[in-house]
Amino acid sequence: RKAILTAIDDDTLCNITVGGLYTPGASVLPSTLDYGYDKLNDTISFDEEKAKKILDDAKIVDSNKDGYRELDGKNIELNFLTYDSRNLTDFAEGVALQLEKIGIKVNVKKTDADTEWNMLVSGEYDLLNTNWMTVQDGNPYGYLDNWYGKSNANYCGYQNDEYDKIYEELSTEMNEEKRKEMIQKLQQILIDDAAVMVHGYYNSNMCSDKSVDGAQISVADYYWISTDIKPAK
To answer: Is the pLDDT at 36 greater than 80, yes or no?
Structure first.
């Protein structure tokens, strides 16, 4: 996991591949939220040579010189599931090109959102990308359940005892400042463990003209269309 994430240049993907439509980031919670993003340490930042060294040190090498590294005697070949939404396919294709530079072959498999979700739930994937709402009810607790070891929503099979302990304590902690500290720790654990391939955060846009009042972007895009949007007086 660390080799793969270290080989991915998210700045290039966000600013060039998709033309600045995303802001690069390392955490599962975006930098716009007040959960200590600026205090996080990105321990898995892009370094192609370091990624190669991680694999070399693990004896995962290209022994037959065909351009791809082998694991257990077979070329590493990963299937990357993606679908057409907010440039997800562009990210998948970009990742495939970047991982090929360190000797890992990636087959991009384009499907629809429903099929991808079913394959996510059943574990039929190597890599997969999607968009998530992180604070649907103003609280990231439900979203962070995706990496809780005992959760039915933990489709990636992630397990970390420290994460589980903090997450369980978070469910009963009422002090807002302590909750923020705990959520920051959960983010750092996921970064250190290279648990999630985060590219960045979608930069939303809304267009309106002077004939409309109340057209504002909220933190949750599901709620953009509201009763606040009215004809201008």
So the answer is: yes
Angle of the 176-192 helix axis to the 161-170 helix axis, nearest 10: 160
What was the pLDDT predicted at 97? 98
Is the pLDDT at 218 greater than 90? The verdict is no
* pLDDT surpasses 70 at 30: yes
Q: How far apart are CA 57 and CA 60, in angstroms?
A: 7
**Could you give the domains of the chain?**
2-202 (3.10.105.10), 208-233 (no CATH)
d(CA 63, CA 57): 14
The DSSP element (H or E) to which 81 belongs, if any, is strand 77-83
| 168 to 132, 182, 186: CA distances (angstroms) | 22, 10, 11
Total residue count of the chain as it appears in this document = 233
The closest of 149, 142, 191, 183 to 166, measured between CA atoms, is 183
pLDDT of 233: 82
Structure tokens at 61: 């090498």
